[in-house]
């Protein structure tokens, strides 16, 4: 957890280079003992940005950015950890899937089949689907991460 006095800075990066920048920050701070970084975060939702937690001033983080390829600039100002901690909580696999959504099964014996979502169990992260082209509607329960959304339902049910 963060020590008091640490601030979180957003570093703008080249598109699709967030992971590279994060790795390089770790390498550079190991060599440059006068620049302190306590944590580096690469949230999936924040494309083109890396979040850095540091007790240092923004000027020090700007010096760090100059040493790292694909790091463009530090966004002016800092934020508290409380404002970015929602990135630390994993999203449930079934979030964004509603009843009536058309999905494609991407794993298991029904791989490649399209199906309609009939029920969602967020607790177990499972969904119950009925195969689209099946003569007899048979409910099949699959894990939320073994389907890909093809078409979202408009009504949600």
Automatic annotation (TrEMBL):
InterPro entries: KOW (IPR005824), NGN-domain (IPR005100), NGN-like_dom (IPR006645), NGN_dom_sf (IPR036735), Rib_uL2_dom2 (IPR014722), Spt5_arc (IPR011590), Translation_prot_SH3-like_sf (IPR008991). It comes from the Archaea. One of its GO terms (biological process) is regulation of DNA-templated transcription. Residues 5-91 form the NusG-like N-terminal domain. Keywords: Elongation factor, Protein biosynthesis, Transcription, Transcription regulation. The keyword Transcription regulation applies. Gene3D superfamilies: 2.30.30.30, NusG, N-terminal domain. GO terms for molecular function: translation elongation factor activity. Heterodimer composed of Spt4 and Spt5. Interacts with RNA polymerase (RNAP). Belongs to the SPT5 family. Belongs to the archaeal Spt5 family. Stimulates transcription elongation. This is Transcription elongation factor Spt5. It comes from Methanoculleus palmolei. The lineage of its organism: Archaea, Methanobacteriati, Methanobacteriota, Stenosarchaea group, Methanomicrobia.
